[in-house]
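Feature request disguised as a bug: please show the residue count (293) next to Competence protein ComF in the output. Example input:
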Amino acid sequence: MRAWITKLLASISTIPKQVQASLPNRCLLCHQSIDNTGQAPRQLRFSGLCKVCLEACLYHEPHCLGCGKTLVEPSHLTTASLAPSSLATSPLATSSLAPGQLTAGAQSNIYCGQCLKTVPLKVIAPASYHHGLGPVVAAIKYQQQLAPLKVLVGALVSRVNQLVEQKLIILPQVLLPVPLHPQRLKQRGFNQAWLIAKEISVQLNIPLDANVLKRVADTQPQAGMTGKQRRKNCHKAFELVNHIPYQRVALVDDVLTTGTTANEIAKLLNKQGVYVDVWCLARAEAPSLRGQD
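Example output, currently without the count:
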């Protein structure tokens, strides 16, 4: 009997590899087969993303960390300022860095001229949602696909490390995932922002705290809403559950469009003297929403 059980357990342990090898592994974007042999980058094997599509989605031009606009005159920029970000509506006129922690010269390396006037929240993202990332984000958000999540988090972490090395940002004390309303969490079964924050925590060794923020309003899905509708939808949608023992945090989400959700949460945290940066997998510029009331 003992030998039979040992044999059974051994056969079960091989099932995942056999299933994995038997499934057609195609890119979620171009639908071409992905090379899972030793010739392919290890992190892309069975990730649902081929190297060509991943490179096409990632940012390669300097971007303002406030509004997300391409910096057309990057002569004074370091390579670290390639990190993209945006708050497509009017950003908070509150710096995400404590006074004195970054010089004016450093701030000029991460903001465009317009954003230097307000010093908005910094939003760090490695890729553009509009470069075809929709199916990948949907797979993460609705199907709990962890393989593409890890690839995009790896790209985000690389961008963060680059900015830190150039002394253009400061690492947060903690990661705060954007919370779901309990009803939405019950329906979906997981919070994609928490999954993203968890992977970032593993890769950067930064603590995760999901007990600080609470979503008290079951807001409507915001796709297709104007900027004014989004702000009304998110107004007073969040509360602080506990006392905040942190001075600097990174708010984590999957995609940032107008920045309405991030701004609403940042207002709560700023009132407690907490400085906020926003980290996400992709930025959706939503040009049709810019400037709308």
